[in-house]
Amino acid sequence: MTAVLGGRPEGLTSLSLGDDEFDTRSRLVVVGNGMAGARFVEEVLERGGGEQFRITVFGDEPHGNYNRIMLSPVLAGESAEDEIVLNSHDWYADNGVDLRAGVRIARADTAAKVVYGSDGSVTPYDHLVLATGSYSFVPPMAGVRTEAGELLPGVYGFRTIDETRAMLDAVGRCRRAVVMGGGLLGLEAARALQGHGLQVDLVHAMPWLMNAQLDAEAGAILKKSVESLGIAVHLDVLATEVLGTDHVEGVVLKDGRRLDCDLLVVAAGVRPHTDVAVRSGLEVERAIVVDDQLRTDDPDVYAIGECAQHRGSVYGLVAPAWEHAKVLADVLTGTDPDAEYTGSRTATKLKVAGVDVATMGINTPERDDDEFLVISEPRRGVHLSVVIRDDTLIGATLLGDTRKVAYLTQAFDRGSPLPEERIRLLVDLSDGAEEVGVAEMPADSQVCNCNGVTKGAICGAVADGCGSVGAVMDRTRAGKGCGSCKSLVKQIVEWAADGEVTEDPSASWYVPGIPLGKPELMAAIRAQDLRSVSQVFAALAPGGKEDAKSKMGLTSLLKMVWGHDYLPEKDAEFINDRVHANIQRDGTFSVVPQMKGGVTTPAQLRRIADVAEKYEVPMVKVTGGQRIDLLGVRKEDLPAMWADLGMPSGYAYGKSMRTVKTCVGSDFCRFGLDDSTQLGIDLETRFQGIESPAKIKMAVVGCPRNCAEAYVKDVGVVAVGAGRWEVYVGGAAGASVRKGDLLATVDSTAAVLELTGRFLQYYRENANWLERTYDFVPRVGLEKIKQVLLEDGEGICADLDAGIQRSIDAYRDPWGQDLAEPATPGQFRPSLPLVDLPKVPVR
Amino acid sequence: MSLTTERLAPPAGVRAHTVGRVEDVPPGEGRTFVAGGAQIAVFRLRDGSLHATQASCPHAGGPLADGQTDPDVLVCPLHLYAYRWVDGVATSGSLAVRVYPVREVDGMLVVDA
Ligand code: SRM
Ligand SMILES: Cc1cc2nc3c(=O)[nH]c(=O)nc-3n(C[C@H](O)[C@H](O)[C@H](O)COP(=O)(O)OP(=O)(O)OC[C@H]3O[C@@H](n4cnc5c(N)ncnc54)[C@H](O)[C@@H]3O)c2cc1C
Ligand code: SF4
Ligand code: FES
């Protein structure tokens, strides 16, 4: 707690140069060793000021100079303290600067030109620079201070490393926090505390968050994003009283509500430290008044950083403070005696509570002929706007998506010309590789990396008469790998066909061979009682014709619709499902036994080891799904191997529920809020092998540190304490990366299981074939999904619950089933023998 | 029936091989056999027709007998190239598999290779 950040091992002693009467250098004294003060000293030294000045720096804080901005990640546990040191005590000594750390200056006598320190020292100066920064403003509230005038224990400001340390020390003992203030600091504090597993209420006196930077609409979107982190936001309300005698117990809001807490962070704004200036008789308004050379009304006293008021503006950001430092260093060292500071155009780029925010200039139009362009996508948490006056950018606000910030900052700073189509300020009308424009792409540039298809090949297919995107994709295989190039393929086809593209009628079909969308197809299957894939083809395909590429999707659908009562046909299954293993590039297979929640036992490991040796498995690998993969297994060895393993299938091959990853949770982890491991095992047990339009992966974590990556799973469950769990859906970290959307926070593991089942069934019934939840959830929309699953908006919850239960009841371990007797003759015969097959007699 | 009858005589340099029984290949699926030293995949479609191709995929050696079928094409399990039964040419036009005549004789599968 008391370690000096950036201090020397020996302690606080700093090299005192004493008063050397032969030293002819003038005396430069800096009060405040924060971001402005220390930067100023650096700038002076850079200009050779070490020769001109004897520099003394007074710092109220005992530490070296550290990066205050980084206190947020330190509080969140994302940065270590020593990473944020900018200038250690040694740095000052090495540069001949006398650092008086831990010494507070009470006042200056501007006539005698000395400053008085809290340690009784009297230090003369020729030039005095005040860089005293700001302090956290604590609004008047009953009970917030003890009788001695200290903050009530449990109440913290958020400005210094010492406060940050104190909060970090407290979080382990606390469960509920209230953060007062919905600006940058409050939001950062709230997110950090929430990350420590505390339940957080954020109270903001204004009607929307970050009201200083954002307009109401953007503020509302930010509120949603913050709430989706699990932070409760209370707007437009003041806290009037702090409860608790020896320690904070809660706050009372003006509307009478009471919020219990054992930690209260006051981040309700900052006030410039002006006490030194006031006592020294300098002119102070909101802050210390300075001119364009940062000079106060005393010609030898200057002020920089947050404690300075220049042309009526007081800044709360570091960039202006650094500009002050530069200009003043130019002036004092004589490098540029006429240097002037004329004000900062504040363009800020911040990450607030995990959301990117960039603002510059004004955020709403002020005149009738100001142009104002807004793009608002509340569902994605994105809100972008620009204000243009006389063809110049005078303001921009980017929330949730700051890709255009560099470009806008340039336009804002330099007043550079703006595109005629204003929307191009905010979005790239095409992105990535497409930016170049498909017309300019060279013919040999590769479009589909998976299948090595060039632009030329796509154009060739169009020239050969492929009239639709689908036909081109079939012909060239472009877009048939990971699919990430599909939109580019589409653009090239459209360009090559000169607008003569025919709409793929099949685009809306569930599978290519049957001209029906998913709902109609399911209805027909039910109405006509079709229970096998060949029955479906006979009844619904044009001319009753089978289609190889439709079989897998139909099998999955029939299993979902009929459960037990589906009529299996092996040839309708993909090879993986036929042999319950994943085919490899050489025709061998991989075997992944079930290991629920990633938990195993020595006995299980021993068995796996024995089996791997017995069958000469070429590679044993721990998978990204928290289980063990035996790779390169011969097809004919599969049944015997399963028998020896005596473990159920892990379904690493199917379009089905795969794994549930877990972390160690409350059983072992010192941060664990709940038993994530058991819940993972329960989820995997309940939903094992459930087939679905695409694979489903889940994870359960014991706290928001998210060690098992629950935020990026199809279903991710996060313990938030007090028996509560957050359920996220639609996350991904594969070919696409997407953070899941918070579907609900529920009160019990039973509720997690129920909601997960309901979501799975809704997805199974409504997703397109091979559509992962990361596409499905945004396509349908989180609001809609919530309405259907949480409020039973369509009255189908009971059906969904019954539907998933039917599939759960139909589950049988495929390995246990097929090892006794093959499902079809030669189910496990090699298809490509690595050794020659026994020769059959020739007649 | 004898294989030496005029009608069924294979072209010169090609011999008829009995590779197995019809039931060895389940409906809609394929199985690999060796005929005259070559590995050959034999398929029995649900409409009763028989087809035979080289066993490994010309693309990257995938096991074609593990593929999926319909009356027009055979789809390789590895990268889903689709080969037409009529001439063995892939629908993407780039590659082709060798196709072999195959027929049923007294419940046995006979391939000319
Ligand atoms: C074995 C494993 C890699 C490993 O050594 O760790 C693996 C192996 C394969 N992955 Fe994976 N994935 C494995 C974990 C993952 C993960 C991580 C996870 O599950 O936490 C991901 C990202 C999460 C996700 O799915 O969103 C992942 C995203 C993919 C993708 C991209 C899917 C997407 O839509 O973004 C594919 C391609 C696909 O499915 O079309 C894929 C496809 C494959 C296939 C099945 C390719 C194929 O079709 O043959 C690989 C099989 C290799 C083989 O021969 O057996 N694998 N794959 C992992 C098995 C996990 C398990 O125990 O079940
Ligand atoms: C958690 C947090 C996150 C932030 N994030 C951002 C961000 O993302 N972007 C951004 O631009 N800005 C951010 N800021 C603001 C930024 O830190 C300040 O703008 C910057 O620190 C101002 O520098 P300063 O030197 O004026 O004040 P400070 O850095 O506060 O330095 C003032 C120093 O003077 C000392 N002092 C005061 N009075 C006396 C005295 N009488 N005698 C001796 N010493 C004294 C104080 O102890 C302090 O050490 C953040 C601030 C915090 C607290
Ligand atoms: S990332 Fe996955 S799909 Fe790609 S090579 Fe590795 S295992 Fe295979
Ligand atoms: S090996 Fe057959 S398609 Fe690639």
Could you list some keywords that capture this structure?
heterodimer, A: 843 residues, alpha/beta, 5-stranded parallel beta sheet, elongated, disordered C terminus, B: 113 residues, mainly beta, 4-stranded antiparallel beta sheet, 3-stranded antiparallel beta sheet, disordered N terminus, binds siroheme, binds flavin-adenine dinucleotide, binds iron/sulfur cluster, binds FE2/S2 (inorganic) cluster
Set down the secondary structure blueprint.
The complex is a heterodimer of chains A (about 850) and B (about 110).
Chain A: E1 26-31, H1 35-46, H2 49-52, E2 53-59, E3 65-66, H3 71-75, E4 85-87, H4 89-94, E5 98-101, E6 105-109, E7 114-117, E8 122-124, E9 127-130, E10 134-136, E11 155-156, H5 161-171, E12 176-180, H6 184-195, E13 199-203, H7 216-228, E14 232-234, E15 239-243, E16 250-253, E17 258-260, E18 263-266, E19 270-272, H8 275-279, E20 288-290, E21 301-303, E22 308-310, H9 318-333, E23 347-352, E24 355-361, E25 371-377, E26 382-389, E27 392-399, H10 405-414, E28 446-448, E29 453-454, H11 455-463, H12 469-476, H13 486-496, H14 518-527, H15 533-540, H16 551-562, H17 575-579, E30 582-583, E31 589-591, H18 602-614, E32 619-622, E33 628-633, H19 638-645, E34 657-662, H20 665-668, H21 676-687, E35 696-701, E36 715-721, E37 724-729, E38 732-733, E39 737-738, E40 741-746, H22 749-766, H23 773-780, H24 782-790, H25 797-810, H26 814-818
Parallel strand pairs in A: 1-2, 1-9, 2-5, 9-21, 11-18, 12-13, 12-18, 13-14, 20-22, 34-35, 35-36
Antiparallel strand pairs in A: 3-4, 6-7, 7-8, 10-19, 15-16, 16-17, 23-24, 24-27, 25-26, 26-27, 28-29, 30-31, 31-33, 32-33, 36-37, 37-40, 38-39
Helix pairs in contact in A: 1-9, 11-12, 11-13, 16-25, 21-22, 22-25
Chain B: E1 16-21, E2 30-35, E3 38-44, E4 50-54, E5 68-69, E6 73-75, E7 82-84, E8 99-100, E9 102-105, E10 108-112
Antiparallel strand pairs in B: 1-10, 2-3, 3-4, 4-8, 5-6, 6-7, 9-10
The structure holds siroheme (SRM), flavin-adenine dinucleotide, iron/sulfur cluster and FE2/S2 (inorganic) cluster.
Siroheme (SRM) binds next to β34 and β38 of chain A.
